[in-house]
Amino acid sequence: MASVQIHQVSHVAVFPSPVTETEELLLPLSFFDAHWISIPPIQRLLLFPAAPDLHYLKSSLSAVLRRFYPLAGKLTYLPATSDVALSCSPGDHVTFIEADSDGDFTRLASDEIHDVDSFLRLVPELDVKVLPAAVMEVQVTRFDGGSVAVGLAIHHAVVDGHGLWLFVEALAMACRAGEEAISGISLVHDRTLIRHHPRGDEIARRLLKKMVPKLPIINTRSRYEGTRRTFTISRDMIQSMKQRAKDGHIQYSTFTALSALTWISLIKTKAVELQARSAGFSMACLRIKEEVDESCKCCKM
């Protein structure tokens, strides 16, 4: 198994900070956020055949964090109100880990059956077991030949999948075209817009008490242990499935066809107990344009 050696740990600050020096900005979690407090951090891995300049990557990260400043903050427990809040202050930063690996980058990027253990070594181990806890960490791992893996770990109570990819897209824009490329990005981080529900605070505290009754200690749920595999389904295959499922004048969507294929495959492999009341799976339906840069591949952990 490939080894990963960490050789430097530094911090990328939010500079200049959007938070004034005389105050700490507290953004209490809404009742939508509280449900995710005990979920393991989101982990994403970006593989680049050609290494980006690390100094430029750090400066771009600092620029993007000015707009996504809660990602550099900490999740904090407020015992006076039993709330959990995002704490943002002028000294906020993101831990930036630099490492080297003797692994086979080409195999990691191309295998259909993914080497999960090797992937996990390329993403940070964000410690969220006790509050206050950092929201995000970044790890950059160099391979022989100049390839690089960029791993992200972000607390799920702060960011959902859509928010994460907004951040990744902004970082890519800043790295590619400079800080001016993200000057038009405008984000709203004020959760009071959601907490306006008349019982919003009460619902959030009730959820926190249920999900994490021993605050500030958080018993994070175990991460799913299983294999990871990529299946490539071509346009012709999708059209064939739609034709086979055609029923009169009903035209099935691509999402419906792929969902049906997934369910049938799960049942055939006996991965779903037929006696169970329900079962679910996660799915992202993506339409990839031909001009998409093939130098970057993403893997959901």
TrEMBL record:
Keywords, sorted A to Z: Acyltransferase, Transferase
Matches recorded under InterPro entries: CAT-like_dom_sf, Plant_metabolite_acyltrans
GO molecular function: acyltransferase activity, transferring groups other than amino-acyl groups
UniProt signal peptide: none
Keyword Membrane: no
Keyword Transferase belongs to the record: yes
Pfam families, sorted: Transferase (PF02458)
Name of the protein: Malonyl-CoA:anthocyanidin 5-O-glucoside-6''-O-malonyltransferase-like
Organism: Dioscorea cayennensis subsp. rotundata (White Guinea yam)
Gene: LOC120260221
